[in-house]
Amino acid sequence: MSEIALDQIRFPHRHLLGIEGLSQDVISLLLDRAESYVEHNRQTDKTLSMLGGRTIINLFYEDSTRTRTSFELAGKQLGGNVINMSVATSSVKKGETLIDTAMTLNAMHPDVLVVRHNDSGAVQLLSEKVNCAVINAGDGRHEHPTQALLDALTIRRRKGRISGLLVAICGDIAHSRVARSNIHLLNAMGAQVRLIAPKTLIPSSIERLGVEVFNDMNEGLKDCDIVMMLRLQTERMQGGFFPSIREYFHFFGLDYEKLANAREDALIMHPGPMNRGVEIASEVADDIGRSAIREQVEMGVAVRMACLELLTLYAPKEDGS
Ligand code: NCD
Fold first, then answer.
1. How far is the CA of 117 from the centre of ligand 1 (A)?
2. Tag placement on the chain: N or C end, fewer CB within 10 Å?
3. Mean pLDDT throughout 217-246?
4. Is 79's C-beta closer than 6 angstroms to any atom of ligand 1?
5. Can you tell me which atom of ligand 1 is nearest the CA of 177?
6. How far apart are the CA of 147 and the centre of ligand 1, in A?
7. Residue 175's pLDDT band (boundaries 50, 70, 90)?
8. Residue among 144, 146, 201 to mutate when testing ligand 1 (max atoms within 8 A of CB)
9. pLDDT higher than threshold 50 for residue 127
10. Any atom of ligand 1 within 6 Å of the Cβ of 67
């Protein structure tokens, strides 16, 4: 990973709405910047000053633990002012529309709006109405770009590369923005992606994204370098997608028996929050030798620092400058 000269950095996008459409160079730039913060974040004094005087507003319409906290930490560690808008206590509860809320916040001249929303496409719509940079922190089942970036950083650090790896994404693909962002990123970086799920949890025509689909864990996990598990997103499900949790775990939950099909050094990942005993067995999730789940959380802060920094200081402004 090469050191990048600051005066040569240019980030070509005003917003970070998704991974789809980002070039390999842009993804590598984000990962390299994030990498430069990993060691720094392990120090006692983490204060930096590059975002001094800048304002970041977190606007989360959906629950979040990891993503919201790490955006807050990332902004503060770079010296920025971070405001967390709690939708539960804001005028959203009084019926204000997404766009009205965005315009209100925009009038306070923030530098970055970090937005999570339950509707796919809502963050893009909002980005068209405001003057500042917008980062998508997850929109419906569409994209979650910073999650895919932190997954990629975790993989790159553990395996030394992304290109050429065989990655299995397993579980509730149909409702997962994490899966979609990861498919785009892994394809762009030259990895091979397999999706493993029951037929009811695989969107039709997903093969168009350049992935192989399996409905059997033992078959799909064969020789994989990375096993990425997904949460069953019951909050997005109407009706029955599988007979019972017990049956789901039996066929699609990651336990040591199914994992034995993957490579011996296969890395286990999960974006969290985990449902233990549903999509993953506790002992597999907690296997310190093989599970990178905690490291993913750690990388989340570094990745969000890189995103905030690049969008604030090195991206084109609204007037094109
Ligand atoms: C994911 C999300 O919100 O999309 N969580 C996260 O950001 N770490 C995945 C999930 O909720 O299952």
1. 12
2. C
3. 90
4. no
5. 4
6. 8
7. very high
8. 144
9. yes
10. yes
Q: What average pLDDT does the structure give for the chain? A: 94
Alpha carbon 315 to chain centroid, angstroms: 21
Q: If you average pLDDT over residues 184-209, what whole number do you get?
A: 96
Residue 155 CA from chain centroid, whole number: 13
pLDDT score for 86:
76
pLDDT at 105 over 50: yes
Please give the DSSP secondary-structure letter assigned to residue 287: -
pLDDT at 3: 62
Task: Using the mean position of ligand 1's atoms as its centre, give its distance from the Cα of residue 273 in Å.
Answer: 7
Judging by beta carbons within 10 Å of its beta carbon (0-12, 13-18, 19+), is residue 48 exposed, middle or buried? middle
Q: Which two tokens stand for residue 246?
A: 């017990």
Q: Distances from the Cα of 60 to the Cαs of 4, 34, 40, 145, 316, in angstroms?
A: 33, 23, 28, 15, 25
Single pTM value for the model = 0.96
Please report the pLDDT score of residue 78 as a whole number.
98
Q: Average of pLDDT values for 70-93?
A: 90
Coil, helix or strand for 112?
A: strand
> What is d(CA 227, CA 17) in angstroms, rounded to the nearest whole number?
26
89 phi/psi in degrees, rounded to 5: -115, 10
273 preceded by a cis bond (ω within 30 of 0): yes
Contact 236 CB / ligand 1 (< 6 Å): no
3-class secondary-structure state, position 213:
strand
